[in-house]
Amino acid sequence: MIALLADQIVRLLFTATYADAAEVARILMLVVPVSICNAFLSVALFSLRADRLVVSFSIAAVAILAIATALSVPFGAVGPAVAMFISELAIAVAATAVVIRRLERAF
Questions:
Q1: Nearest-5° angle of CA 37, CA 99, CA 34?
Q2: CA-CA distance, 107 to 94, in Å (whole number)?
Q3: CB atoms closer than 10 angstroms to residue 81
Q4: What is the torsion angle, in degrees rounded to the nearest 10, for the CA atoms of residue 71, residue 73, residue 78 and residue 81?
Q5: Burial, 105: exposed, middle or buried (Cβ in 10 Å; 0-12, 13-18, 19+)?
Q6: Digits of tens for pLDDT over the chain (107 positions)?
Q7: Contact by Cβ (8 Å): 41, 99
Q8: b/e for 8-25, b at 16 or more Cβ within 10 A?
């Protein structure tokens, strides 16, 4: 819902001067739920005694974000926002797969 109102929110908070930032804000709003899921997945991994995987996933997230951001700079401010989404999504997919696999082994 907030992503749909990004134009109005940006204009309200930062004036029309920053209206172009609405697209970036819209993309970053997509990152928020994935990031929240990653926090829960990290807790699940810790509880499954996969501490090292959490650290590995964090390092991988930084590496993916750095590479994707470097490659996306020519696309302006939208590029790094998309890079952040890709980084968070990649970690979410990997962490979900590990949590499912570990839970299947537990039962």
A1: 15
A2: 21
A3: 23
A4: 60
A5: exposed
A6: 666 778 788 877 887 788 788 888 899 999 999 999 999 999 999 999 999 999 999 999 999 999 999 999 898 989 999 999 999 999 999 999 999 999 998 77
A7: yes
A8: ebbeeeeeeeeeebbbbb
Q: For residue 88, give the nearest of 4, 29, 13 by alpha carbon.
A: 29
Three-point CA angle 92, 72, 77, nearest 5°: 95
Model pTM?
A: 0.83
CB within 8 Å of 30: residues ≥ 6 apart: 3, 85
